[in-house]
Amino acid sequence: MKETEKRKTLFHFDCIVALASIPIALFLIHNEYNTPNPSIQQTLGPSFMPIAILIALILSAPLLFFSSLRTERKSGDDAPLPAEPPSKTSAEQYKVMGMVVLGLVVYAVILTPAGFIISTTLLIAWQTQLFEKGKWVRNLVVSVLFSVGVYYLFVHVLKVMLPAGILAL
Amino acid sequence: MKAFQNRTYRVWIVTALLFVGMGMVAAGAAVAAGQDYPGKSMLMIAPSKPGSGFDTTMRAVVATLTREKLVTVPMTVMNMAGSVPGTAQIVLRYSNDPNMIAVMSTTGSLNYATGLSPYYHKDWRPIARLISAYYGIFVRQDSPYKTLGDLIKDLQEKPGETPLSGGYSDDRLCYGALFSKAGIDITKINYAAFAGGIESAGVVLEGSAKALVSTIDDVMGLLESKQLRLLAVSPGKRMEGPLLKDVPTFREAGVDIEWDNFRYILGGKGMPDYAVKYWQGVLAKMVKTPTWQEMIKKYRWGDSFLAEGLDKFLDEKQAVIIDVVKTLGMNKKK
Amino acid sequence: MDLLANLSLGFSQAISLQNLAYCFIGALYGTVIGVLPGIGPVVGISILLPITFSLPPVSAVIMLAGIYYGSAYGGSTTSILVNTPGEASAVVTCFDGYQMAIQGRAKAALATAAIGSFFAGTFATVAIMLLAMPIARLGLKFTPAEYFSLLLLALTMVGTLATESPVKGLFATLVGLLLSTVGMDLQTGRVRFAFGSPWLIEGIDFIVVAIGLFAISEILVQAEKIKKYGLQKREQISGRYWITREELKQSFMPYVRGTVIGFLVGVLPGAGSTPATFFSYAVEKKVSKHPETFGKGAIEGVAGPESANNAANQGALVPLLTLGIPGSATTAIMLGAFMIYGIQPGPLLFEKDPAFVWTIIASMYIGNIILLILNLPLVNIFAKLLDLPAALLYSMVLAFCTVGVYSIRFAVFDVFLMIIFGIVGYFMRKHDYPAAPLLLALVLGEMMEQGLRRALTLSNGDWSVFVTRPISLGLLTVTFLSVTYSFVKVLRKRSLNH
Q: Could you state, in order of their start, the residue ranges of all structural domains in chain A?
């Protein structure tokens, strides 16, 4: 039961990839084609490689489509098994992952205005809560120590500038 | 889960607002009178990655100013991803910050001419030109070309069989300006572009390319070890040094043009006059110090300090660059 | 023999307390830089440069060299422990190194990486000593045409790494190639696929993609598992030795092969150590009696590439020291440093200032020893890191990744890019799209394309240049044979199944 379930997901996904890649590739080819080239002497211009790759992608899309169909049709043991444990990702799991991503996105946005130390402290606090609820004190302490430590390491030891933001240290 | 998130969120929003508030109060207090300039720390922007030309120049400036005690406030060097996003950040974020200066070169004019960047020197306040790097046309030691004229002749008659190599941005400007002045159709020239002068030396040493266009300091080593020979150099006057003093300039070799890759310091467009004057003064002093003289000798830069007339110089350079770019068709838009 | 005399002269100078200290500082600094994801020797060396001005040239170069090969040692540490490449050349170590850590064999992985690096570093230095000039001349023969043929071979070789689904491997390769075209084209100055973003004009950085595809996706996978399986601790095998005799035996030939491959690839100006690691991995997989273990914790997959990494770094010094032409971005910065110190690398250097050159070479031997002594005991400490509460570990990894990525180009844009590739990487793993071909294509794509077009520019449009030049012809032939062979194998498998 689990195997066919997994293969159906595979098939589904590959199907989407194969089908979606064609219009995307066509759009990109159109884009490339319509960009004018400088009059510099060239046997192969800058458009050659991108367009060649995109055409190859368009040609491989049906290959991908049909190979995924073939995997679907095979039954039982001869079909190659995927590496990840076979299970469908539930909505709740997606939510956790989404929160991780959200934390990273927010971090990227506030990094420059708020500065490295504040943003990183917030990031680590957020992520540790996601992975392991409770243990507030430990998490916060680690966050602050880590952020300050890394800041010191990068800015004063390695001499790589990090955003100081509001603290302007 | 939801309730927990709400509380956390609220705590963080309040903390963030507190910090922002404190910061604004602090900043407001620091907007002191210009007499105190620079007052607080200076941001020195090198709009490219560490290790690049901008970066080394700016760090050299900071090192000299520090060692010679010409500037006492802390100076932090900030790098950027590249000249295009760098200039965008300078204009958009720091135009009105008097405590920011940055370094720029012909790259800025080139980016503007090709349309990569919407900004050029009129979008900021040029303060002073510091250094120039000069170009040379090099050939392999045993090459049949003895003068620049020989090379030009071959480029006229059989451009397809006379491939050149060099860097991809400002080196291209150099050969573009040089050879168009010499009357060659530069769109017919076969030019293999590499990341920099020294990287493009390989194909010349091997023989696939007939000549190299590069800044002189880039390939000085190959010149010294006699693997490359110079046909001509780009400045207005002859250069100094045992290897360079006998090399004709472009003008002497028959093409009425001089060329260089200059680097200059600038401030934001909204930089007040007192700040500009301050830096012009400091930099004028800096270029006379022994530390700076040592720096430019080490890096093999040309000392070309210019504060008065810098704007006019930039205008002229920009016009020539736009011309070359147009001829090469590098500015085409959809 | 003259060689020994020179070498002993070099050693006598290198062993001075001062130079030893600088060597150690450089090696330590380099290791830290290598371990930190994103920030690499390029940034590290160029920022430290002004500080070295006040040192005597020999000491300064010893320190820089220490940073240089020190970073090669450190990069694999985070690759193995948390699937986060410390620098581009450590990406391949993620493939099997991390798997080994999951299986509790982190110590063995770390140890084999350190030993392999030492092996390669030492023997590569010997090679520099004996073969520098002739190899450099050979390196010069590699014109753009040869680069194209070589990189084409590399791409096709790694294409065979995708065992499960060749079509998906092909897809991944093509996507990687496409990503490599984003940005400014050097030959014409025209920008491709930037869609108005000033950062995309500068192209997509390989390490950003690698960190996203490996580290971030790994964390997402772990996040997914929390609900179902709780947090997983990696129980590490405890024991007195870091690595068993059996594992050492398995690692030995990969060390040798990796060193040779790495050195030869490193000598080619522009190639760098990253392609060398991919090459080594592909070769190890091809010659292995158990290729199916690769990707699941085969120690050869760590031993080979790690040696190749170090050997390539040393190899890149060859064109630098003998001809004055840098072999990679890092060596280009070192060249700039040399010129500032007043040293002119090139054929004259060996004649004019042999004491200098031999001191450097001697310090390379010493540096490698220092790094081995530094890194082996650290294996235990690093492995202990895995005992940290997973929540803290993962969060800190996330923070390190974002900071590291930011510090490459000081662009928040890159952080966003990393996140996007993290999500992409997650889906790729769930649906069996191999990351290796994508990454290799990304690394090699631009060089390959530029090689192709430069070759045609130099030959004035003459395509025959690829087959009339002997080295290029040889490489293309091998490529053709290898592709045909794989094709035949796939067809045969298909017909057997029917």
A: 2-73, 91-157
